[in-house]
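assembly run, all chains below
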Amino acid sequence: MKKRKERIDRGIKVRSEDVFALTSYRELLYLTAPRLLPVFGLLILVPLSPPYWQEIFISTAVYALLAISWDILVSVGLISLGQSLFYGVGSYVAGALNHYCGLPPVLTIPIATVTGAAICTIALLPVLRLRGIYFSMVTLVLPLMILRLVEATRILGGTEGLTGLSPFPNQITAMYLANCCLLVALFGFRRLMDSDYGLIIRGISDNDRSVMSAGINIHWYKTQILFLGGTVGCFAGAFGTHHDMFAGMPGFALDYSIMPIAAAVVGGTGTFAGSLLGAFILVPLSEILRALGALRIVFYGLFLVVFVVGLPEGLFHYIRRKYHQFERWVEVE
Amino acid sequence: MKGGEELLTVTKLLRAFGGVLAVSSVDFQVKRGELLGIIGPNGSGKTTLVNLITGFVKPNAGEVRFKGKDITGLPPYRIVGMGIARTFQMVKPFYQLPAFKNLIVPLCSPRIKGLLGGSYGDRDAVALDLLEEVGFERDANVAYKPAGALPQGYLKRLELAKAMALRPELLILDELFSGLSLAEVASIVPIIEKLRFQGKTIIMIEHRLKELFRIADRVMVLNFGMKIAEGKSDEVMADEAVKKAYLGSEAG
Amino acid sequence: MLLGTLVYGFVNSCILALVAMGFNLTFGISGVANFSYGAIYIFSGFTAWIFLNSIGFPYIICVIISIGLSATLGILIYHFVIKRVKGLALSEVMATFGLGLAIMELFRYFDFVGFKYTLPNIVEGSVAIGDVYLDYQRIAVVFIATALTAFIYLFTHHTKTGLAFRAIAQDERTALTFGIDSDRIGALSMGFGSALAATAAIVVLPMGTIAVEGGYDVLLNALAVCIVGGLGSTVGILFASVLIGFAQTFTANYLEPHWMMLVSLIAIAVVLCVKPSGIFGHQKELEERI
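ok done. output:
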């Protein structure tokens, strides 16, 4: 007698999928609780944590932003191996504006977000036309080469970087800025992917030829998504640089590439919430494992392999399934 | 239908892959309102010809004119924008999505926005209407099923609906009938006839000669990338070169 | 100065070609982009060093063991990682990238850092060409790079396994119907690619120290050469190696050594703008065959 696992939607899910959800508080809660959780966590719990952990949560937010930016690129089929490109460009643009032109963070961050994204988009534009792994190759190579370039030419402060940049007035401001932007990116992108626009985006990564034959210029859509992902990544860079009061070569280093990917993969791709979850697991974890030094990157690497090969759906999909469905074993002949 | 204006003119179209001439110097015209069938043994360059016309493959030489305008080598989305839509031989719908959601992508195209001037109402409703037109029974709610759960016959219809959603002037159907049972083919033929009645111009690439000959105005035969015959169905049937090409390919 | 630059430029080109060949071979055969390539490169360097210095085997044995172990590592990676996600480009790239990082950083963790990690030259001594002194090791690099290129050409064109490689590269499904086991070929392609990485490491590393950063550099250089030359094209790889190799050496000698990386970057930028698929690349944009 063989057994098979059967998954059934919870009754509350079936009912609350409809507008009738509003008829009962229980169903209302069922629908809104998962959405309120990150809002509550990021805006209330995190700022209440002790200062040392606040610091960690700020860097978590930066990594989460990079992970979300990675996730939106993946949704259109672009696998970036160099999120540090976005971080580095955002960080140097903001840093340079602050250092050379004396602009305050209120101006440098928005400018760096937009121009940084534009720079990255233009730099990667030629690769968008190619299928397959070219995008990954180029995104991996570019930041590492820019790194050498900065080192060699000693532009933008060379190996020293740009130091003494304007900080945020206080930690709470920084934290709310990062977390609010994180929430905007999270819910904004989720909403975007649920719209008809998102349908086209998913279609492009699924079957680009079919979307092309539907009269849609897929390169233009890919460019838009690249720019969108770029803004989030460059914002993370601009934010991080003012928070650290430093823009330098570490911005282009591999840490900012591998960590977001690991976070997104561990959390589960395609949902953005998975990236957030992954970042909030991995970054604090790596803080706890700080004593391990270089071994941390080993762990990220292995996490990546194990999740990609063994658990490709990621944690978020798993949790969501448990939330919406119950499982039971049924007998089959 | 005879004597209508020329909608599509293909002149000396040529494309080689490596050393193989997939399409070599093919000329033909399609008049408005006509149904042209293109047949030929496997590997005779039919699909490449479609890819060349629709911009998925760039020709090495030759010219494609549509409504008098040169469209050679334009990207596919521009060509769709001018009014040519195609189906693919290998259907690849978005399997997780409900069938009608598959039509949202073409309904979002700039062509439809241009035609309807921004006021296209409810896309879902339009999609459901289109699916009903190609034979998705509305009562049975087939259109709401995920595309992955549909049988081949419905997938082909979905493919047809995707092309129709673009409101094309010229519709190119690449082996729409392949892999379908006789009954399924018989149920799709009326849809095509209805499209013709509405005045659509159609090019059909087909292996099902019997059904094609019944509905086509004119048939063109390709072999090794070259046009070997063109004319009315019965003329083409009687052509010696055509017989040889088909028999030859079967023998080989 | 000019003669020296030319000679060293040629050596540099050979090094680049050696380094890029393994990555390109694996991709050309099984379509697997092995982002753990750099890790395998330094793995073989450190393995040879360990067997030489900690165990004390004769160097030639160490070389053979190192190449063998690297090939085995490549095959294991194929079986335990790539095979399970085959066909999903996203997963292949991330899994090999993650694994490569893990291997490289593991070496760093175990403190494989420092100047003592060097491999001996295959041949000692040097020769004067005009007024340019060239050590025999660099001549060996040229010789081995040429020999390997010829070997790969003969192998893929004239042996059964090699022809099966090419069949898989052309059309995996058709090859399957002819009874070619694509998993076996895939594993072999990883093994071969890794063995080439190891060979490159054995030949190139004596000219410097074995360092974790070297792994990243190798991956970077291999990718740069493949992007410029065109992924999967052997001719492209050779051409791009010569192009970048000479350009780098000229920059280093006439401008400043620091600017070498700039050359690769400019080469990549120019190629991407003019012909994104690489000079000899035929990476498909959208084309679909008959």
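Chain A has a mean pLDDT of 87.

Chain A touches chain B through 18 residues (CB under 8 Å).

not gonna interpret more than that til we talk
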